[in-house]
Amino acid sequence: MPDITLYFLQASRSIRIAWLLEELGLDYKLHTWDRESSGLAPPEFKQLCGTHLGKAPVLKDGRLTLQESGAITEYLCEQYDHSHRLFPVDQAQRAKVREFVHAAEGAFMVHCLPSVYNRRIDATLAEKLAPGIEKIVANDLDWLEAELQKGNGRYLVGDHVTAADTMVAFSVQFIFRMRLGPQDRKWEGIEAWLRNVENGQAYQRAVAKTGHQL
Ligand SMILES: N[C@@H](CCC(=O)N[C@@H](CS)C(=O)NCC(=O)O)C(=O)O
User: Which CATH number fits domain 91-198: 1.20.1050.10, 1.10.3380.10, 3.90.930.60, 3.30.1370.10?
Assistant: First the structure.
């Protein structure tokens, strides 16, 4: 039996990994931490998680300690997705899933986070730069909307949850919750997809176990 522990920070990307572990039907120990009032993870998290960066999520599997939600996702799928449900074998589908796994951080989060940092540093500057950043974020959301229109609209790739959904959902929830895109636009396909995956049993179990709330 694997000896897996998830170091989970509230209101964070950690939900991606709790959800994936539930999708994979794996047993895992869960350590949850609330954020400090600064928004940062508490010092105990940083001491215990065993990484230099001290960012969540962190996964331990036996003697392996891993950070970066995308890398953790790929590791868990390689190790435990024996039926290749989360990372399909079909080459084209697998490539699309990998594209989304990377885009979750490398496009969606990279493009919206400057606004979050600007808000923390200087409200006036944040307001000045927001329209430019919103355009880039809107372009990412337009891409996602178009991808959903090409498929069944319920999942990003194929006809069931894959690692694409478990990675990208948080990015989009974060963009909507923090109002990082233009507020005069709506992405109905994305909203319907989010409702669908959020209603999934594994996602619901992950939320119930961790207390995740954004
Ligand atoms: N690219 C990393 C980002 C990790 C990250 O920035 N985590 C945030 C939470 S979403 C965090 O730990 N923030 C608290 C802190 O920096 O103390 C990943 O995908 O795991």
Answer: 1.20.1050.10
Q: In this model, does residue 1 exceed pLDDT 90?
A: no
| Architecture, CATH, for domain 4-85+201-210 | 3-Layer(aba) Sandwich (3.40)
Please give the Cα distance from 68 to 105 (Å, whole number): 9
In the prediction, which pLDDT does 160 show? Answer: 98
- Ligand 1 contacts CB of residue 12 (under 6 A): yes
Give mean pLDDT, residues 81-102: 98
* Centroid of ligand 1 to alpha carbon of 30 (angstroms): 17
The residue whose two tokens read 């920070």 is 9
Break the chain into its structural domains and give their ranges: 4-85+201-210, 91-198
pLDDT mean over 169-198: 97
Q: Which atom of ligand 1 is nearest to the CA of 45?
A: 17
Write out the two tokens for 47: 């001491």
- Write the residue with the smallest CA distance to atom 20 of ligand 1: 68
Nearest in space to 141 (alpha carbons), one of 97, 163, 93, 174: 174
Output helix, strand, coil percentages for the chain, rounded to the nearest 5.
Answer: 60, 10, 35
Tokens of 190: 């994305």
